[in-house]
């Protein structure tokens, strides 16, 4: 790097003049277009995710699968030979850091699109930057706010599930089955708040009684002072709405406290990477939701194809839920680029809106008003026995098929219909 | 939320003491090193983390938790000896900020090395089988393993107290902390004393990391959060005072636990509020000697 700078700095005047005149000659020559096309820069996709910190395990999966989508696009010839490239940045799970990195991606790296984020709060910071700069952003983590008119822009897409859909699906399954008295342990930020709101909303249909909601800060490592209180509330269901390492530790310590003996633990999302990192004991018997599980490959050819490609690229490993989102988020954008035959933002937006895709988990499409991907939600249970391989960690209990009725209406989100 | 019973408050108090025991175990190593060497060891959290990883490694090659309880402190203690001899010793007599900056940098190096060797994602660390599950302690159920941690902390404290107060080497350590120059004049090799104190301090840190692993799993960044809390404990207890660290550790645990009961969202802040109050009322902490930092 330093070497280059000195070289460029000491460029001779004569050399400069020749280059400049050659450039000027090229500019008027008819060969210009061909030459430019051959040297065209790759299609750059900025990818800010929290590689370090409590959600690191999931973020690394997002990157792996995102790379796969790029590799497939390039192997298929790219956009008339123009290749794509993933520009990964660590947002450290911090909105300020994410905004800075995104700005850098847009201004310095000149990325064409941004895909990424793994936090209900951080994605809004990224979205603020991309929205203002008119760059397409496809978010691959949960958020309700990003669908709402206040945060939405025509450049904003949401490939991930949102808390309303997720908690709705898990709630409909769990409240019917395990009981009506519910206590909550919640990560104190947008993700947790939106999940609890979703659970309470679907809970109305089941006359669920809310015994209390205990909130903990993001990045908590000891839940021992919160668990006795939750136990004393004597709920049928303890709903733990947190993610990543918080989820691993909370479930582990809840198991140690013997909570599972009398209480069914549910979680809006059970993260595959967290389940692997925490081991079978902690997650045993916990019911939750997810956007993707590799085991649905018996049902969908697209899942089978995605699993096989992932296995091939990563020594037989299987993709996780958040990995699949990284794949889906990048792949839909590149598919739209191909469809539009261009990287021009407006054309790609139109192509994304028109997309009906089945890339890894069955049919999906982006709803017109809020660009939310309408898709299935899986309700899963963690298992500790009869595992066929190291990725065989969940059992799919039920599937909520893609349907707009499980989303909040466009009017409720503040969009004009 | 209703339902505040006597049992719940008692259980909450107990949970606070159990949490405090973990703080104590972590903070005494820090306090010991500071009290004797006036080295503010910012790498203490990293030693703690490496302790957990060494345990993880030993178990993966066929060891068990009980072997680790002995092997990990020895391994981390030896590592601590090497660090003191090679890195810390040249900095004695240069002002308190030199070793502080050095250990701060060292902690980054250690975390990064572990990330390279073991990866950025964490590993599960199963509670040893005989210590799994919860037992009835009269006011409610409490995890057996946490009771074991309280016991282990008590054993370490007792051993440390006996060593410092009842052995002749302990006498030299205490004298060396009070006035190294006189001890040197009396013909004692003070640098050897400091070497061993640093080794003991880091050995306890590694031991604490091993004990924490079954509670929360193992991850390269695990030393970071507890370091901040441990500094609060040492400041409240009085920098360098082991007795102060014990009292303050238990107090911080109980304060966190009781705040969690009534206002869970305030629990994290309550630690620092406690520190602020103590610093206003008694700037040197509970048992701190004034002027140690200058």
Automatic annotation (TrEMBL), chain A:
It comes from the Bacteria. Residues 42-384 form the Leucine-binding protein domain. Keywords: Amino-acid transport, Signal, Transport. Residues 1-24 form the signal peptide. One of its GO terms (biological process) is amino acid transport. SUPFAM superfamilies: Periplasmic binding protein-like I. Belongs to the leucine-binding protein family. This is ABC transporter substrate-binding protein.
